[in-house]
Amino acid sequence: MTKTFTSVPAVLLLADGTVFHGKSLGKIGTTSGEICFNTSMTGYQEIFTDPSYFGQIIIMTSDHIGNYGGKTDEVESNSVKIAGVVTKKYSGQNYSRISGESSLEDYFENNKVVGISDVDTRALTIHVRKNGAMNCIISSEITDVELLKKKLSAVPSMEGLDLVLKVSTSEPYNFGDEKSKLRVAVLDCGVKENILKCMTERGIYAKVFNAKTSFKEMEKFKPDGYFISNGPGDPSVMDYAIKTVQEICKANKPFFGICLGHQLLAEANGIPTHKMHHGHRGANHPVKNLVSGLSEITS
Known about the structure:
By secondary structure, the protein is of the alpha/beta class. About 20% of the residues lie in helices and about 25% in strands.
């Protein structure tokens, strides 16, 4: 028997005082974080479990969200990492994919995600693009905007915030085939599972370490190279990771970083990072390679 999806009125309040009204999705409650948008048309479950989004409320700009349901293997980590979600049209309990294992609403409820639907996400995204990243609050239990303003004023800014230790592995673990010819030490700042899978598909045996692990400790694995992962928060306050990257570079070890890892490489070489006006996540963005003159498709 199909479970009936019912929603109640919900409110989205931005730090600049802008208010959007809609309907609840997921858990009935209140949540807050920095607002950010993602322009991907598919892969919403991968987005929700991406550690790089920890502490952020995601605007899904694609018109329909939830229409292909959820699956246990379509994840980037072992839990939902977003603080909340904003959608326009929401499928609730309905989904059309035969291989889907649950509705997105069940997935949100089971993972205690608070969100809001029936919002003009085009207008909201344009507002964020014009006015910049800011904190926001979603509530499906409080409709008093003045009370929500008081709660929102207590939410810390993402700038200057170290969130990596909230998502990094507590204990080291291995990934891949131990008989592989190449060994890579991964400093886990919030690594996505698919990145590790891409490594193993290319003949790499990886060991994933907590973000505060020293270069000396990772050297015991005898890696052929080092990888610094993606992750949330501000790289400029991560002195421990910056020091580790400096030591890797000083030892002239093969190194690469993605997202936050790339930013930490910059910080380690005296190149300062600064917060962008607004965050923009998505898929299939063409980037011109200034060396070759060709375009490369990136996420």
